[in-house]
Amino acid sequence: MVTSPVQIGPATLYCGDAYQIRPSLGFFDADVMDPPYLFDNSGGGTFRKSRVGADRIVAEGLDQGFDRTIINPLLCGAVAVFCHNDQLPELLPYLDGVFHRFALLMWTKPNPMPMRNRHYLPDTEPFIHAWNRGYHPIGEHHDMHRWIHANSMPTKLFDHPTVKPMAVMEKILRNVSGEAICDPFMGTGSTGVAAIRAGKRFTGIEKNPAHFATAVERLRTAWEQINDRAQAPKIEATA
Ligand SMILES: C[S@@+](CC[C@H](N)C(=O)[O-])C[C@H]1O[C@@H](n2cnc3c(N)ncnc32)[C@H](O)[C@@H]1O
């Protein structure tokens, strides 16, 4: 069952299943999504005990991947999608086949989890920006890097193990063209906060009621701050 959305200024938030709700919402300029990754989150040795986020990822199924057909080029001009390193060989050919062009970008972290499992440190998270004609990446010269450097977020901040830093989401929102943005896996609403701060319209979907409530609270606070700034008296510069 799909419950009525919560409306907060230019943001419309649905609590429910993305695979059911997203196709019914029609066309957006961009889908910006951070879906459950597909990866082996076991191991970690002596570091594991202190990494509560890793266990939360498993408990919430955020290591189980997603159905890539939620990215539908008939329903969006572009997509920005995060994934695990191991998903790139499957996801890149899919996106290359259905969009006009794509770029592979990286969020680099100075503070990766110290769990390697005989692999490299998890100090980069890839995301792919794929677009159709008319929806190519935009931004000032300095926004056009393929990387963004930011610390990862502690689980305890919003009681969610995979919150994306605002610096990362704000970079993406500067790069996607158009006004209407959808995040079908919005978690605590980071994409939405970045979207409305960038003056865009946002639609988010989250199935977990606790994370949905956090997203509602974050979007309400962000929208109040935007309105407060708009209403603050302008201080004239004196000559
Ligand atoms: C990687 S997290 C997104 C975190 C988000 N970027 C943030 O900064 O808070 C993915 C989210 O998708 C949600 N999710 C997983 N499957 C879903 C589905 N079928 N429909 C809606 N939400 C789903 C999970 O509950 C989780 O909060």
Gist of the model:
One of its GO terms (biological process) is methylation. It is built from seven helices and nine strands. With 239 residues, it is of the alpha/beta class.
Fold-level CATH name: Rossmann fold
Number of helices: 7
Report the count of strand segments: 9
Strand content: 15-25%
Helix content: 25-40%
What's the architecture, going by CATH? 3-Layer(aba) Sandwich
> In one word, what is the shape?
globular
Order of helices and strands: EEHEHEHEEEHHEHEH
Low-pLDDT runs = none
Could you characterize the architecture of this molecule?
With 239 residues, the protein is of the alpha/beta class. The protein has one domain (6-231): Vaccinia Virus protein VP39 (Rossmann fold). The protein has seven helices and nine strands; from the N terminus they run ββαβαβαβββααβαβα. It has helices at 18-21, 52-59, 88-98, 155-158, 166-175, 190-197, 209-231; strands at 6-8, 11-15, 28-33, 76-82, 101-108, 124-131, 147-149, 180-183, 201-206. Strands 1-2-9-8-3-4-6-5-7 form a nine-stranded mixed beta sheet, with helices on both faces. Strand 3, helix 2 (52-59) and strand 4 (76-82) form a beta-alpha-beta unit. Helix 6 (190-197) runs parallel beside helix 7. The longest helix is centred in the last third of the chain and has 23 residues, at 209-231. The chain is globular, with a radius of gyration of 18 Å. It binds S-adenosylmethionine. S-adenosylmethionine is lined by residues 17-19, 34-36, 62, 160, 162-164, 185, 187-188, 190, 205-208, 211. Belongs to the N(4)/N(6)-methyltransferase family. It catalyses: a 2'-deoxyadenosine in DNA + S-adenosyl-L-methionine = an N(6)-methyl-2'-deoxyadenosine in DNA + S-adenosyl-L-homocysteine + H(+). GO terms for molecular function: DNA binding; N-methyltransferase activity; site-specific DNA-methyltransferase (adenine-specific) activity. It holds the Pfam family N6_N4_Mtase. It comes from Edaphosphingomonas laterariae.
